[in-house]
Amino acid sequence: MAGKRFKVTFEPEGKSVYVLGGTTIYEASGEAGIIIKAECGGIGVCGNCIVNIIRGDYEQKGSERFLTEEEIKKGSVLACRTRIKSDTVVEIPILSRLFDQKILTEGIEKELRLSPNVQKLFIKVEEPTLEDQRSDLDRLRDALKPIVSDPRISVDVLRRLPENLRKGNYGATIVLNEDEIIGIETGNKSDKNYGAAFDIGTTTVVGYLLDLNTGKQLGVAARTNPQTSFGDDVISRIHYANTNTDGLNNLHERIVSCLNDIINELADNTGIEKKFIYEITTTGNTTMNHLFLKLNPKYLALHPYVGVLRSDIDAFARELGVHINQHGKVYSMPNIASFVGGDTVAVILASEIHKSDKFRFAIDIGTNGELVMGNRERLIACSTAAGPAFEGARITFGMRASDGAIEKVLINKNDIEINTIGNVKAAGLCGTGLIDSIAELIKNGIINKNGKMLKKEELSSHVPDIIRERIISHDRYGTSFILIPGSDSKTQEDILLTQKDVRETQLAKGAIYAGYQILKAILGVTDEDIEDILLAGAFGNYIRREQAKWIGLLPDIPSEKIKFIGNAAGAGAKMVLLAKELRKEACDISINTEYIELAARNDFQKVFTDSMFFPECLAYK
Amino acid sequence: MAGKRFKVTFEPEGKSVYVLGGTTIYEASGEAGIIIKAECGGIGVCGNCIVNIIRGDYEQKGSERFLTEEEIKKGSVLACRTRIKSDTVVEIPILSRLFDQKILTEGIEKELRLSPNVQKLFIKVEEPTLEDQRSDLDRLRDALKPIVSDPRISVDVLRRLPENLRKGNYGATIVLNEDEIIGIETGNKSDKNYGAAFDIGTTTVVGYLLDLNTGKQLGVAARTNPQTSFGDDVISRIHYANTNTDGLNNLHERIVSCLNDIINELADNTGIEKKFIYEITTTGNTTMNHLFLKLNPKYLALHPYVGVLRSDIDAFARELGVHINQHGKVYSMPNIASFVGGDTVAVILASEIHKSDKFRFAIDIGTNGELVMGNRERLIACSTAAGPAFEGARITFGMRASDGAIEKVLINKNDIEINTIGNVKAAGLCGTGLIDSIAELIKNGIINKNGKMLKKEELSSHVPDIIRERIISHDRYGTSFILIPGSDSKTQEDILLTQKDVRETQLAKGAIYAGYQILKAILGVTDEDIEDILLAGAFGNYIRREQAKWIGLLPDIPSEKIKFIGNAAGAGAKMVLLAKELRKEACDISINTEYIELAARNDFQKVFTDSMFFPECLAYK
Q1: Pairing of strands A88-91, A118-124
Q2: In the beta sheet, which residues pair with residue A480?
Q3: Run of H or E residues at A437
Q4: Chain A residues within 8 A of B152 when measuring between CB atoms
């Protein structure tokens, strides 16, 4: 079974992923970007992750604890206790979904009352007569009185009122954004009310299209942030902005056109007209937010490192060049500090750490690693220079977790098993593949405690030939491990894990781990006090906990305490789109979360250095 | 003395007018557009109109009642009791000014606290340090906290914050419009805070430039409304808008460019940069307001005659194309009904009829004649189709009251005395000249009760030759009276008063007088109940009461009850610019003033017909 790849399709989305045989449905769903609820972290003890297998062979152990024999016979199983044995079709019920359930369904979770900023209403006004010569606007305002008193209106929108009222026999659809009329449409179009939420990452931009009337998610689309060509981290982008004429403008236009591309894709895929998208919400790190708003990020990178904007801000989509309804708005979420942004606010908002009695720890691994630890009393956040390694950047054959990315590596005595996303020919290495390959090479004695990749001649004689022969000394990259051999004709290159890749990973995992240690020290807590560790971010979604613990990226605490919360930043952006009162809550989080500058602390350098080591391989000693 | 013209210069403005000898200073000041306070209406009994003669011969009778002998010796006199005998320079103290005093001076009139919407403040913020990494905007908001809590800011303005703060060593000038930061300027520019108020008349547009810090008026400029080439009254403009492609757009662009021309002129004359003008307020009739805002006026002219907008509205100067500060705003005053606009609201606001215990009557004679009657309990307004006769339109040789306009006509037995504005060669006939010439021709038996201009052969034999020979039968205009003979060589045409001009005037004065009768009837009051009649509008300013009563434009009530209040519509626009709380008051006036549609009343036609007659000339019977 192991070594063979199977296609798993999730319903009702119809989304498919290819995984190695033996993978759990829980794990596979994570790869598909669908976050199943599992309070226990996927160890079979909470009973949250019930799914229905529609087709396919599988092996399940432990569903009996929560399901009747009959239910199991019909295909209901715990996703975390069920392993794939063939191509499979699985339905994930709404009750088993984490954010989908919280965000996209009204009423199931009490705390998210659907209350978007934008409301559409079909309004009939009284027809004018000689006895009732109220102006068109007075007529409309009077009709709207039960909903909003004395709404504002721009001249531009008002200009459409007389014709649109008369075309519809004195009925028209009114678009309200808070207390402002931002649209007047002919006839009854109150059902066409859409918004989009964006997580603007340094490397990846994700957009979600939502129905503001139902809260339903209609589509999701992702793109590589096109600013990447100007530098792969925030500092290099700021540098570019400051040292090039029109640098800021270029970066701004790139990200805006990326959002527009995503909007186009979402609109095309769903058949929705862009003019019916009335609001977008955005979140991202502070630099990304500055660049999106075309605010000069210069002083973020200059002592004493202050931004132009910490708070949230409303803007007109038009003035930013975002192509939605011409009177549409943009809401940019508040930031915490210069290097902990709105994305972290969104993670806190979505994961509700700020409401927790117990201490919790969240890691949002993107191009930087933002860490948050605390509870309802106190929240501390910091940013680690984790680098974009886990997003594939700065890794020799790195790539984003998309089709062709090596996402899983298993080294057995006589075999090296590799799985790629989409089950297509390998094109590179994504974050999980990177962790897997390093973990496997440590376990097999090829990478030592210091992160050095041993040359062939330095290896223990017990290392099997099948592994040994993959180690080469590359002209350009030095000592490297061949993950996928190229063609003999050299028309296709080897796909390698290089010494440099290991160093990048060490820096990243060391920074995150050191941050964890320091946050604990500040709060005076130990591993045992931490209720759970929440892994957010596109990458966190795919991570394999045991491997991550093995290389020292995650602390060695019980795996059931380590939970995947998916793109929680995106979830936060969706929440403030769907529930306006959460904007106030986001602002409170933004103000009340303490920011810690790790590099400014005396203890940091030592903790960081200590955190860079790998475990020792004892297998061949 | 009579017949000779003298130059009267008013200080501190330095404004001059040319008047016939024997004219009172009170009358001359009105021609200069300076409204002197005179509660008694200029009959020497209130003592308000004290002025100081700096140079010139004059004859005064009656100042003793309010001034000491010594004061009179020094040149202090009552303006209404003093007649010009030579070129004269007169200073009008601020206490003797009507609107200037009320509007332009803080504290003298308690009810007008200077409280413009726009405030400028030089703000020093704390310099950032590693210990204080607040964002630039947080820093600014904290510094502004004593003035405004949590001000809004647009992204565009925010973009300037970091550089402007640092250029000024963490000090900058903040421009606040209510709770929004609309500007951030380097250094301390808090003294440069300007606004402009506009009265957009159908025929004439007047703009005032004001210092928002002091309330002082810095300049005034007027232009003919360039929409006039598309029709001289509101109905023809609406017709043009509806029957021409781009008609509305053309009208809109014309009026906006007129405002921009006036702004340029005001800026040039005062040396003020337009970027320091942050707000304009506008008033006008409902159609003018629609056209300025580019709101379709179509339904104003179609049964049942409703407008798009009655209420006030805020707009961005930018979106209307008005060239002031790029983040400047436009406040358009509220209207009363489809044919009684914001200009009437402004007249009421400025004249305070809405606060009066007694019944008052205001006439705003522009292209239409808007009439308001009432007191604090009840206010009724109507519009009369007075036509633009008094503004010179539809009059054969009509012109606006500017240099070269015949403004006064006196017919003595052996002489015809004519005065023109600016004491230059006559170019045409303005409203006062029109009234004067008709009144004089009635008195001399040339125009009869029905408004017919008699032919030479129809005249009484007692009519002196000097008058008789001025009557001609013109090829094109029919029976006409030569006011100014042309040159013998015919290189210059005669300036005539024609039969058609008399008919236009009859219609105009008949409509106004009929409106007065009907308003009285609705309120159940008589002439005796009317405390005063307020003449507003550029024309009202110049009117000679006895002549206006003689031709039946004004009711035959004591002249002291007839008061000039100048361009009260402009005054109202200035008031809402300088005192934001008056915007609420204007809205209350707009809602509470009842609109009467004269033409819809059964009694109107008869009253109107009766009002068109002239008095009978008994001189030559």
Answers
A1: unpaired
A2: A472, A498
A3: helix A431-443
A4: 314
Report which of A566, A421, A401 is spatially closest to residue A36, judged by C-alpha positions.
A566
pLDDT of amino acid B329: 97
Return the half-sphere exposure (C-beta side, CA atoms, 13 A cut-off) of residue A77: 24
Q: Which of A53-67, A312-326, A548-562 has the highest mean pLDDT?
A: A312-326
| Residue A412: both structure tokens together | 């057995």
Which DSSP symbol is given to A455? P
A363-373 b/e (C-beta count within 10 Å ≥ 16 → b)? bbbbbbbbbbb
Q: Find where tokens 């990259």 sit.
A: A477
Residues 69-128 of B with CB under 8 A from A: 128
CB B406 within 8 A of CB B428: yes
Which segments within B245-352 are labelled E, that is strand?
277-284, 313-316, 329-332
User: How many whole angstroms separate alpha carbon A47 and alpha carbon B405?
Assistant: 95
B140, B145, B256, B295: best to mutate for the A interface, most A CBs within 10 A? B295
Q: Does A155 touch chain B (CB under 8 A)?
A: yes
Which tokens sit at B370?
């808007």
Mean pLDDT (chain A, rounded): 90
Closest CA to B160 of B128, B130, B136, B125: B136
Sheet holding A15-20: strands in order across?
Answer: A15-20, A5-11, A88-91, A50-55, A76-78
Q: Single out the residue of A423, A299, A311 nearest to residue A7, CA to CA.
A: A423
Fill in the amino acid letter for B452. K
Distance CA B220, CA A20 (A): 83
Task: Find residues 373-432 of chain B whose CB sits inside 8 Å of chain A.
Answer: none
Give the H or E element holding residue A104. helix A99-104
Mark B243-260 as b/e (b = at least 16 C-beta within 10 Å): eeeebbebbbbbbbebbe
Before A146, cis peptide (omega within 30)? Answer: no
Indicate the residue type of A491: T
Evaluate whether A473 touches A482 at the Cβ level (below 8 Å): no
Q: Which domains does chain A have, with CATH numbers?
A: 5-97 (3.10.20.30), 118-186 (3.10.20.880), 195-332 (3.30.420.480), 353-388+505-611 (3.30.420.40), 396-495 (no CATH)
Q: Is the CB of A587 inside 8 Å of chain B's CB atoms?
A: no
How far is Cα B304 from Cα A127, in angstroms, rounded to an integer? 10
Cβ partners under 8 Å of residue B47, min gap 6: B65, B66, B78
Q: Which two tokens stand for residue A545?
A: 């906990």
Query: Which residues of chain B neighbour A137 with C-beta distances below 8 Å?
Result: 308-311
CB B37 within 8 A of CB B98: yes
For the stretch A203-213, pLDDT in tens is 889 999 999 99
Determine the residue of chain B that is closest to A166 in CA distance. Answer: B299
Give chain B's mean pLDDT.
90
Q: Is the Cβ pair B159, A294 closer than 8 Å?
A: yes
User: Cα(B278)–Cα(A42) distance, rounded to whole angstroms?
Assistant: 62
Q: Report the pLDDT value the prediction gives residue B103, as an integer from 0 to 100.
A: 31
Residue A481 and residue A497 in contact, taking contact as beta carbons nearer than 8 Å: yes
pLDDT tens digits for range A264-306 = 999 999 999 999 999 999 999 999 999 999 999 999 999 999 9
B102: closest CA among B114, B92, B112? B112
For tokens 């979830």, the residue is A571
The beta-carbon neighbor of B309 closest among A135, A310, A315 is: A135
Beta strands at A82-84 and A118-124: parallel, antiparallel or unpaired: unpaired
Q: Are A348 and A362 in contact (CB under 8 A)?
A: yes
User: In this complex, which of B129, B138, B311 lies closest to A311 when CB atoms are compared?
Assistant: B138
SS3 per residue for B572-604: HHHHHHHECHHHHHHHHHHHHCEEECHHHCCCH
Tell me the nearest-neighbour CA distance from A135 into chain B, angstroms. 5
Tokens of A57: 């062979």
By three-state DSSP, how is residue A263 classified? helix
